[in-house]
Design brief:
about 60 residues, SH3 type barrels, about 0% helix, globular, KOW domain-containing protein
């Protein structure tokens, strides 16, 4: 995975208290085992919902 990739948060990150599992996002930066991502509304890659840091092992690449 690299910055700019579209991802699905496939598993709830243990470092986040807000429910993120099932959200879609774009990776902004990668720091070690974590990705800073911006989340977006379903089927809308123009309207950002929020952002956060998520472990890479919770993410799946979207095609």
């Amino acid at each position: 995975m690299k910055p700019g990739d579209k991802v699905l948060i496939a598993r709830q990150p243990s470092n986040q208290w807000v429910k993120l599992q099932g959200e879609k996002g774009i990776i902004n930066e990668i720091h070690g085992d974590f990705a800073e991502i911006t989340t977006y509304s379903d089927n809308d890659w123009w309207t950002a919902k929020g952002w956060g840091t998520v472990p890479l092992d919770c993410l799946e690449l979207l095609k």
